Amino acid sequence: DSFSKLTRIDAALPADLDEEALRGSPSTPAGTTDAVTAGAAMASDYVVAHLDELAKLKRDEPAPERAKKIAVFAEAFAALGLFVVGLDPRADRLEVARAKVKGARFVEGRAEALPFPDGSFDLAFFGLALHHLDPVPALREASRVARRVAVLEWPYREEEVGPPLGRRFSLEALEGLFREALGSPPRFLVAEGYVLALWDKG
Fold it and tell me: What is the pTM of this model?
């Protein structure tokens, strides 16, 4: 129910870049990865301010309303000056997101089978999304198309908002998923309202 984000720092990208050009485009030059990690953390902080709103989303809410709220992830990254691609399996949500966030691109697809070539992005970001997915294939696909992977998830505790405890990941569980999918553990940034796991190919 959340958009996965794939980002690339590239100020020279044309505003009218189409989807086919995007899928075949190269990744950014080396040297931008520290900025990307900082961007992931900054965007996560921004998103945390909207967690209450996101947690109140209901499946029976009209799709346009869900898309407007979910697009906060793309909005956060675009506001940092990053080139952003949002991914979602539903075309109706993508249409609304495109109208809301003009500075991002949105592509229909699934995180477990990303429609991009190897090494297309600096960062793949899962914004409160991994617990909705088949996590091991999703993480493997993220590492295939991006040099770094960031996973923003709910804290592992019972709360009145957000998913039930059974749908949340403990730090140990998240580390295990990264080890199984990518062969090494992530670094964790743990705050009161969220957990951010950061992984890079080294």
Answer: 0.75
Sheet of strand 83-88: strand arrangement: 104-108, 83-88, 4-8, 121-127, 146-153, 195-200, 187-190
CA dihedral (120, 124, 129, 134) positive or negative:
positive
Q: How far apart are CA 90 and CA 155, in angstroms?
A: 27
Mean pLDDT within 99-118: 91
The burial class, CB within 10 Å (0-12 / 13-18 / 19+), for 26 is: exposed
- In SS3 terms, 6-24 reads as EEECCCCCCCCCCHHHHHC
Residue 11 has pLDDT above 50, yes or no: no
Whole-angstrom distance, CA of residue 10 vs CA of residue 1? 28
CA distance 141 to 130: 12
Strands (E), the chain: 4-8, 83-88, 104-108, 121-127, 146-153, 187-190, 195-200
Structure tokens at 3: 């958009």
The residue among 1, 35, 3 whose CA lies nearest residue 114 is: 3
Q: Which residues contact 100 (CB under 8 A, 6 or more apart)?
A: 67, 68, 71, 75
**Closest C-alpha to 26, from 107, 118, 111, 94:** 118
